[in-house]
Amino acid sequence: MRTLIALALIICAGPALADESWILFHGAGDSVSMHGDVREIGRARARLGKDPGHVLWFTRGGKEYVVRDAKALAPVDEPIRRMEELGRKQSILGRHQSTLGARQSALGDQQGVLGERLGTLGSQRARAGGPHARAIDEEMQQLQSEIEALGTAQQELGAAQEKLGREQGRLGKEQEKISHELDASIARLEDSAISSGIAQKL
User: Fold this and answer.
1) Tell me, what DSSP letter sits at residue 67?
2) Between the CA of residue 102 and those of 95, 107, 132, 156, 195, what are the distances in Å?
3) What are 57-79's pLDDT values in tens digits?
4) What backbone torsions phi and psi does residue 39 show, to the nearest 5 degrees?
5) I want to staple 58 with a disulfide (CB 3.0 to 4.6 A). Which of 22, 36, 49, 162 is the partner?
6) 22, 1, 20: which is closest to 11 by C-alpha?
7) In whole angstroms, what is the distance from residue 57 CA to residue 47 CA?
8) Strand pairing of 32-35 and 54-60?
9) What does the pLDDT look like over 19-59, one tens digit per residue?
């Protein structure tokens, strides 16, 4: 899933041991990807500095490590890019959902106004007769037509929202899949970096 906590952040949800976390600093502003408690970002920055560049910080068995080797980090760049792209798409869909919701709310307000007017006319119609009654009937029929048209528009907006919701669900599943893949890639990277000595113990 993608969230914003005073920085561009991707949190991955794959399995990991309770005492193990990882944070990949992208080297571009405050943008990071991570698995673990967001408070670990402060812990990592305390060790690496405010702007550590493109590095991987992680914990294993209570120990902290950092990988700075660009070649070693390269395999995880593509899933990160895919996660960011999916996050952008989710953001766009969310804005569309918000717009449709506002339009539905406005239509509901219009229906409420027309419904109140229809109720007032109904009360007047009960006491009216002759030409005045016919005029009220005509206005009531017009109002009914307008209310039905608003109802149809709301149904169309509802269908559009449902379509957006399905797409958001699809993107969410894809994000979850990539998140698990990324966690697995990071775990392999950590194993390789520790065994090869690329990982620097802090």
Assistant:
1) E
2) 11, 9, 38, 14, 55
3) 999 988 999 999 999 999 888 88
4) -65, -20
5) 22
6) 1
7) 9
8) unpaired
9) 578 999 987 667 888 888 888 898 899 888 888 889 999 99
